[in-house]
Amino acid sequence: MSENAAQNGAGAPAPPPPAVWRDRRRAALDWLTFGAGTALILWAIVAGASGMGYNWQWYRVPRYIYRVIDGELIWGPLMRGLFVTLDITAWSAAIALALGLATALLRLSRSYAGHLIATLYLELVRNTPLLVQMYLFYFVLSPILGIERFWTGVLCLAVFEASFISEIIRGGILSVPRGQWEAAAALGLRPRHVYARVVLPQALPVMLPPMTSALVNLIKNSAIVSTIAIFDLTNEGRNVISESFMSFEIWFTVAAMYLALTVTLSAFAGWLEARARRGQERR
Question: Are 22 and 159 contained in the same domain?
Fold first, then answer.
């Protein structure tokens, strides 16, 4: 038995190494800082509202989320708006992913015309405000194409977000080592099979973190559809405020609902990224 074991006692667990203690202290300090910052923000909000003579009425908020009448669950305006936001986000994300992939492939292609079209699209969309694009879609393209306002909002969001997603996909594809491309070509795979079976599966873990940020931005940017009278979560929140005069409570509730969506999406994407990396390590 060594001298240290004799001093600690037979079978006594060894103390954690210094690095573990440093990590624990750093984590505790981070949580303490976060708690202090949150408390300071809440105090500033409450103090400001008190200075304005604001009368908090949180007890009235649940009726705008849901009600139970005769045993039947009835969704309130905020939940109905949330469902519309989810619908818009889902359709916009699907179209944006498809358009972003097509744009990225055009940028990587040897076609001069395809590369030029993709570049012009990216420069035009990424360098103009989303609000201006929404008005152009609603007042110009919507009457020409004869589409309703819901799909106008979906298409505008998809076109805007696809410009960022395309660069994420292109960067992920370029991150795959050149040897993988050459090996796939040596096996006689066609270009579409090279992308589908070799390149994209390896690029996916690289693309997931920035792709998550793009989808989170899509959820937040979906509030812009309220400007064309789509009754999403933001628009329903404004309507509730005009009816109840509870500005602080409703906007805090709306912000919390958006936060729940984005945090859930980030957690799910983190799980997918960890699973994809584990799959690559097993290979």
Answer: no
Q: Is 131 contained in some domain?
A: yes
One domain for residues 35 and 116:
no
Same domain, 168 and 242: yes
What range does the domain containing 32 cover?
13-51
pLDDT (tens place) for every residue of the chain, 283 residues total: 445 544 555 555 566 666 667 777 787 887 888 888 888 888 887 787 777 777 888 899 999 999 988 888 999 999 999 999 999 999 999 999 999 999 998 998 888 898 899 999 999 999 999 999 999 999 999 999 899 999 999 999 999 999 999 999 988 888 888 887 778 777 777 777 777 778 877 788 788 888 888 999 999 999 999 999 899 999 999 999 999 888 889 999 999 999 999 999 888 887 877 776 666 666 5
Total-model pTM: 0.80
DSSP letters spanning the chain: --HHHHHH-TTPPPPPPHHHHHHHHHHHHHHHHHHHHHHHHHHHHHHHHHHTT----GGGSGGGTEEEETTEEEE-HHHHHHHHHHHHHHHHHHHHHHHHHHHHHHHHSS-HHHHHHHHHHHHHHHTS-HHHHHHHIIIIIHHHHT--HHHHHHHHHHHHHHHHHHHHHHHHHHTS-HHHHHHHHHTT--HHHHIIIIIHHHHHHHHHHHHHHHHHHHHHHGGGGGGGT---HHHHHHHHHHHH--HHHHHHHHHHHHHHHHHHHHHHHHHHHHHHHHHHHH-
Per the structure, the count of domains in the chain is: 2
In a domain, 247, yes or no: yes
In a domain, 1, yes or no: no
Please indicate, yes or no, whether residues 149 and 246 belong to a single structural domain of this protein. Answer: yes
